[in-house]
């Protein structure tokens, strides 16, 4: 099946000469959740803005369900919902009217039952008659999501959707995102909260300096680039790693009582060899634990290599 969004050789150079995107290629599959990670100024928002028809590209092509975002703007825009970073709403309008108007603006017939469903799912139903200026920042962000969902888009872009939202509200939003994916909506998420990508994404893309460094299945990425550590708390302190263990790469990690062994996630069998060699060297441990690299560790390493 063809991807729902296809991006080829996409570039964007602003009037001041800044190159925001440098030949980005990306296919977004139907019904997936793709998380785009990158530091400020990496090109995330520019990429989203071009796909949504808000910013014109300098070069390249973007197809949304087979339609060019420049030539077939009306068609592609009707397929896309966008939740921007900025809290831009009419402060003197009610929540209900704000969401209802968004549906009508995109040419959809009135459907108060559907609007109620959205507001209930986003825990906004009891706020439906409140004016926007009466809401907290987190609630306003939920209204932005409701506005984007009001016209039933097939693709939803969430640009830093949980910025300024407390942990409980953030987790509620993750549940909403999961329900949308189950309903067949394709979701592209940009975030600074890497635990969001780790929690809900199917694939992860890392962008930095206008270049897409990689796009990979989340679990595959963790397996390929993730590292594990075996941490051994020793029964008695040692001053140096014994010569008989030197070839294993064991290190004394800031303590004479702790040995650390780094290994690839697919080489867990090596642990038995390490423990056996320690016994032969007469080194005993009283406790052991393991730690696996997080997605944040991988992200930091990738961006650091590109910097």
Automatic annotation (TrEMBL):
Keywords per UniProt: ATP-binding, Nucleotide-binding, Transport
PROSITE patterns: ABC_TRANSPORTER_1, ABC_TRANSPORTER_2
Keyword Flavoprotein: no
Domain ABC transporter intervals: 5-234
InterPro entries, per the entry: AAA+_ATPase, ABC_transporter-like_ATP-bd, ABC_transporter-like_CS, ABC_transporter_ATP-binding, P-loop_NTPase
Keyword Metal-binding tagged: no
Pfam name, any one: ABC_tran
GO MF term list: ATP binding; ATP hydrolysis activity
Gene3D superfamilies xref list: P-loop containing nucleotide triphosphate hydrolases
Superkingdom as given in the UniProt entry: Bacteria
Homology family: Belongs to the ABC transporter superfamily.
Classification via PANTHER family: ABC TRANSPORTER ATP-BINDING PROTEIN
Protein's name according to its UniProt entry: ABC transporter ATP-binding protein
